[in-house]
Amino acid sequence: MMEPASKAGWRTQGIATVYDNRPWLTIxxxxxxxxxxxxxxxxxxxELPSFVNVLARLEGGSFLLIRQNKYRCQSETLATxxxxxxxxxxxxxxxxxxxxxxxxxxSDTWHPLGEYVIDPNRxxxxxxxxxxxxxxxxxxxxxxxxxxxxEIEVTAEELLQIGMGGQIKAIAWETCILKGLxxxxxxxxxx
Length: 191
Description:
Layout: E1 11-21, E2 25-33, E3 39-47, E4 51-58, E5 63-70, E6 75-79, E7 81-84, H1 91-103, E8 105-106, E9 109-119, E10 123-137, E11 150-154, H2 156-164, H3 171-188
Parallel strand pairs: 4-10
Antiparallel strand pairs: 1-2, 2-3, 4-5, 4-7, 5-6, 5-11, 8-10, 9-10
């Protein structure tokens, strides 16, 4: 049987910046006390920008995915809509902006799917997941930057197969898809 963790939690005793290239990356070395009282003098924390991912369902019922080629994926991948949260934006406002920029869509029906730290030990940013329902097109995508993004529409069954089949190369996108489908299943069951 595991011993319960201390209610005091982790305590930071000191912070030294190792590398600073804000807003993109900061690496810090923390001195911490663990919940059991152990002192660790070199606990590294990586600060990355927070971001949003949106599972978008169009008014007709199909789901919208983006086909793209990301540098660290080293291959083509399917993705949910998303991007960084700009300074001063709430996660929801960033999600709405990204939906408009990447897909030319708006939605009046938003459901938060959770807030997640990427690496529970080192940090690496926060991801905010959303499900946008009954999305409607207002025009062409508005803000595509240096990436080539191709939209595809899929059914719920195809989306589940994509989510389980290795066509998604990033854990945040995968989580957004599967969490969104679980949320929809839960809503449909009346629970």
